[in-house]
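Revision sheet: structure tokens.
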Amino acid sequence: MMFNGERVRLTDQLKDEFVKSYEELGGLGERVLGFAYSELPKEYTKDYKFTQKPTENFPKDDLTFVGLLSLIDPPREGVPEAVDICKRARIKVFMVTGDHPITAQAIAKSVGIIDQHVMDAGKATVVKGDDIRAWEAIADPVARQAKWDAALSHQQIVFARVSPAHKLQIVENNQRRGEVVAVTGDGVNDAPALKKGDIGVAMGIAGKDVSKEAADMILMDDNFASIVNGVEEGRLIFDNLK
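Predicted:
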């Protein structure tokens, strides 16, 4: 690693200190990036075309760790209030993210998706992508569904370090349980889950064209609170029609 301008050996003690720092920053809801570099041989000139497809054409070993960088992506104004309205309206809000579980849990707590007292009571959980991979590897379909049902029976849920394929599996297993599922997404890989959901909501600003085409509704301001406003208006119209 690089320390005070010099390369030194990365010891287990230093690794533990970096992990501790990362966990502290992640616990504050900050996203943490790690940086390292490698000195490439002379044949890798400025004009060399680096690529990772179909395979990497450059070495990635003998890296020198440089340090950590943390950044915060604060939730939009009105999101905590919108999540609280969802709770009172009996709407379960799941957080599905690729972030580290520690960071995901901290962000979820900051907006009210997870409450500490609910977590302490054992009614909230953080499901990792590795957990889903382990469930899907179970050959017995009854045992596999039992794992999903045990997780989805929690009152509050955060899915962390998950892939777009996992997002589709989350939708399918909720629908299997008889839930009406609304899905939000903005990327190309979100399209299957958007299409599978009972209603797919794509982002109008950050969303890719593929996700917009797969969705049933496009959110013009990319704001979660606008979805809640739409549900509120829809329920009002439904009540007036009854």
